[in-house]
Structure formats: C-alpha cells, structure tokens
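Hi Y.,

Following your request, here is the sequence exactly as I used it, all 309 residues.
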Amino acid sequence: MHTNALGLRGTAVGRSKPPGTLRILVLGDSFAFGFGVEDDETFPARLETLLRERLGHPVEVLNAGVPGWNTAHYGLFLRERGLALQPDRVLVALMGNDVSALGRQRFDVDADRLPLRIESMRRMIDHRGRMRYVNDAHLELPRFAFPGSDWLADHSRLYHWIRLRLTWRWVERAEAAADRERAEEAGPPPDAPIASLSVDELQRGLRSGDEFRLRYHRHLVAGLEQTCAENGIPVDWMVIGKRDSAAQAGMPLVGLREDCAALGSRCLDTLDLFPTGRSDDSFFAEDPHWNAAGHDRVARALAERLPRP
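Below is the corresponding structure, written out as tokens. Let me know if you'd prefer a different format.
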C-alpha cells in the first residue's frame, strides 16, 4: 500500500492537472481507500484503467478515500483541498455508517452549519499509525494489552486478524448501548431547519439518533452538491453496502438507497451488484470489505454509467 505526496492512495500525481487529462476525484471511506487490496486493485485505480481504454485519452482517478471518514469529512476535504486538485468530476462513495458516525463527532461549523473542524469522540490514529479508541463517547474501551502484545502487534498478522475481528464484534454491541444512552440524555431532536440551529442544538440533535443524523447527512450532501455546482464540477454518487447489508433494514442505509434512487443515473447502488449476499465471492471471507473481484465489478459498473466527457 502506497500513498503519494498529496496524501492520496496510489501512484504519484501532480497537484496541477495535465493538459488534456480527465481527472476524477473519489471521496469515501475504507471501501474507496481499498482496505485489503493492492493499489492497482482498488475501484478508483480500476476505473482509471477502464476509462483510459474506453476514452482513448489520459485519465486520472484520484483516490481520496480515508478509512473512518464520513459525509462530514468528504465536504470539508473537498473545500479545503479537493478543489485545488482541479477535478473534472467528483465521485462520492457513501455508506450507512457515514450517517451513524455523525453522532460520535464534535464539529466547529460555519454559518451554513457545514463543518470547519471535525473531532472524533470515539477513535484516533496514534503516532504508530494504529487505531486507538478514545473514551469521549460513552464507550468503554476494549483492552488488549497483555505481556507480549506489543511484540505481537509488530510481528504477527494472525494477532491483528484476531484482534480486528474481536474488536468489530465488541464495538457493534458497545456502540449500540452507548448510542441508546446518548439518545436518552439528548431527548427529542430539534425540528427547526438545520441552518437555523445553534451549535449546541446541532450536537444535541446528532446525539438523539439516526433520524436527525440522516437529516444532517442530507444537509451535508446538499452542501457538497452546492460546492461542486459553484465550481462547475459534476458530482456523482454511489451507495455501498457491506456483505450482509441485505439483511440490514436500518434507517441510514434505507435512507441512502432512497436518495440514490431519486438521483437516477447520477448514483450507483452497489447493493444491486451483489444480490447474493454472503455467498458472493466479491468480499473477503472474514471481512465486510470488497476483495479485488468486488472492486473490479464496481469499477466496471461505474465506467458504464459515467457519461462521456
């Protein structure tokens, strides 16, 4: 896995777009980043190859996916760094947990209630590049420290494999309990327009549950659309589901799929590409992310949908 001088995954690219080049900026989380696959196997890299073959001229697909990011990060990155990369199109990859994660962050916001600064209440990346949990979201910390754990962390892939799966299962249960506790403390969500809320009202609403978080997510999506429109940049969307998402009928994913359907050809619902759920060979056997075959399937679907320049 490599990152370039711009902090993006993949090979080196210049900040300025070369003449005659179609440049697409991809925003997303670990699915866009390509958790578990090689640099050239991620769907942004495969999309770049397919579009070059299809169009017959230079194409750059910049992978700005970051594991753990959500809708708030996508718009902030676009405004602060993405526009300077001179994209001809922007492609945003959304997941249901993008919505839920909004309740586990603190924001400094502008007059339009769009984020200026984002602080996680749940996890951070330490100086060694490892994910650490912080205890500012009513979430009891998992403890994996024992004699020899540091050595295993540096030398054993099996240790990381076991630790990751235990952590995922623990976090799912702990987060559900913590979300219920925060929602009880927050009370009913505010029903005034998002742009009219104070920062305290906004944060209380985000703690209240997924109904308000989906409202704020849609506010963030509208802000990102407006940023692109003001700069003459078309924006496309995709909705990502994990391997077992077909069995999940929760509000965030259902809401994202409804929004995607309303956008028509501007949005790809990837759950339609993987109808067989757990039996599908496009996911890792013990991980919710796409493997190389899954990324290739998504890239081919995107290459067919994106309009010719």
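The first helix runs from residue 30 to 33.

Thanks again,
Q.
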